[in-house]
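1st attempt posting a full record on here, be nice pls
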Amino acid sequence: MTEHIGSSDVMGPAKLPIDFNVFERFATSELTHSGIWGWILQSLDPDCPEELHELRAPARALLKRLNVQLDGRISVQREVKLHGSAGRVDIEVTDQNSRVVVIETKVKAAPDVAQRERYAAAYRAAQRAQNTPRRLIAITILSTTFDEPLDRTDIGYIGAAEILDILHAGRYQGQLINQYTTWLDYTLKTRKANVDKALGRDPIVARDALRDGAAQWGVMRSVRDQLGGQAAASLYCGRNLDGSAWTQVAFTSGCTSDCDQLFYRLESRGDAAEFTLRQYGKPITPGKADRLDRLRQWFREAMMASGCPANYFDTTPRYARRDVQEAKVAQVTIPSATAADLLERLPSVHAAFARRLGDEGWPLGPA
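the predicted structure (as tokens):
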């Protein structure tokens, strides 16, 4: 992907300071971003006023990215209710041949593969039930939340950097699209800076940077990459009840009667960031507490086998939120350590731990 940080040379009007950027200060909702992309896509209609023809370049670039072509009159609808569901589609684009493209926008929430699957199923059900010629030909998510490499996920979304590439297909005289591209430039630049801080050697700077969910995502993506195929597509993020961000990567393939799901989680907690290994089981199966004791012992043995200091990870018994459904196996805090140091120590510890899990019959692999 092409990096566009501060690329003012392709813009028309002068940039406004970021504090006066409408997308940074006021137009921060998914509704706003859906409106922008609905407006861009509407420019493809043959009756679109000439003043908006400059929007056709990014509209066509987006459709090219989706490997689709729309013909003739274009209808763009917002907040379209799904057949047989309470859900609503952010943007629905239909051409004169009744071919439909569905676009979801994500500004704060993470991309969700299950949402795409629900929407696709609803359109298939509507086509059968209503005997309609309308046919869904593409569905995607435009996400400015995170910028995950597209070849490492099955979610099938378009991230912020690629959105910016699409926008740079055109030149704009209007202030609105220029502010949008400026905001994306700023967002990507800030995100990269926070990830760099989170991965740096200064523990206080790293701790502060890890309050940002995007910085957590960058660190946990590195964790996932070091785990290799055991966690190839299992990176998730969200927020706790207090609003603090968390990101986690699973490396066992779910819960069974004899095994629990295991994952690493990074989250901001008050004056520290916590990196934990967690055991999760729902419903709670017999022997879960005993398995927790064994998991802690196996992890201590893995630290010893890999040469990791015995006190680097805390494996003292403690429960996390959701009480006995989710328990901490081991924990390290930042700034007591740094993410950079963690990334150096974790691979060998995890490899020894994973070998023991495999020997004990635990199902390793993405959840």
